[in-house]
Design a protein that fits this description.
- This protein is an alpha+beta fold and about 70 residues long.
- It has helices spanning about 15-20, 25-40, 60-69; strands at about 40-45, 50-55.
- A two-stranded antiparallel sheet has the order 1-2.
- β1 (about 40-45) and β2 form a beta hairpin.
Length: about 70
């Protein structure tokens, strides 16, 4: 299990990297990220070069949500 600490406003790794590190598909990562975004726990900012910047919006709420499921 990979565990990292992130701060609010910090940029997260790319979907490809997250998928490789967690040994899951990119689709699984995208689905999880969309769920987190729907709960306003992260922000996904599209860029012009077909990539997306992932930013944690509220680290305390995210931590609580992850610990309770």
């Amino acid at each position: 299990m990979i565990q990292r600490l992130y701060n609010a406003g910090q940029r997260l790794p790319a979907v490809r990297i997250l998928a490789e590190e967690m040994n899951v598909s990119r689709a699984t990562i995208r689905t999880a990220l969309l769920r987190l975004q729907a709960k306003n726990l992260i922000e996904m900012i599209p860029r012009g070069d077909a990539s997306t910047i992932l930013v944690i919006s509220d680290i305390k709420r995210l931590s609580r949500w992850l610990s309770t499921g």
